């Protein structure tokens, strides 16, 4: 089990769309954690080059995250939304794709990495068996007990348990039927429910920006914590300047489909407030349609028309090199656990 082989219980979240870099992945791995590399929005050829770059930077264990493809959305379900956006912005073409899923699987079978993690769904048992046959562990991100049971049944080795506090996209298998049916579960509640339902190791993610937060997740049954937002200000991260400037501020976050058609948590801005209520469930169609306007906003330094993905505790994110931050988070978690035990359960 890979979790038994890493020195520190810290896993780098695979932040697609810019922040994830080979340098960030390698720095977390070399510090004793597990670096993950985001493959989302990249072609199989591009992620192959990035995997090679990670291998040049570190000889340690690392993993690659894939986006599981979902069903296409009928154009009539998002045409009105795009028309409303088009009255204010230059909107691109909406389209469905699989994020090069099949080619990326082929790549990772031909040139395996220690861990393959999957978000937005669960690979089929046959696909998991292919990755196992190549020597990779398969981790699946889940947001409910039902998803957890499905993933374990398909052969997942580890579950990444994502609480509602997490920044970026919700990892629900079916965004059109999951979160809208009720409030998404917080990390602590979800950890308890999932650990009671399945018997595979759990990695906790969502709102864990400090050692104390990691300690709480470990005490609740997690084997490690997956951290994203806390690394967004690290120099190794490819976070764009507009996004980097917003992290560490006090602005609140909210869940929205406004930018991509899939529910995601980001720092509230004018675009979210104006268009969030009308945004349809249509991923990746809306993601592609708004890609150009978001790129333009980043180029202009305009934080009000770009997705500023961040977890609920983003105001606590430090500005530290990734290796230093990894060691500090682990040390702070250890100290928090020891202090709590000594204070609440003193020796007699």
TrEMBL record:
Keywords: Detoxification, Flavoprotein, FMN, Monooxygenase, Oxidoreductase. The keyword Oxidoreductase applies. Its cofactor is FMN. SUPFAM superfamilies: Inosine monophosphate dehydrogenase (IMPDH). InterPro entries: Aldolase_TIM, NMO. Transmembrane segments: none annotated. Gene3D superfamilies: Aldolase class I. GO terms for molecular function: monooxygenase activity. Coiled coil: none annotated. It catalyses: 3 propionate 3-nitronate + 3 O2 + H2O = 3 3-oxopropanoate + 2 nitrate + nitrite + H2O2 + 3 H(+). Belongs to the nitronate monooxygenase family. NMO class I subfamily. This is Propionate 3-nitronate monooxygenase. It comes from Nocardia jiangsuensis.
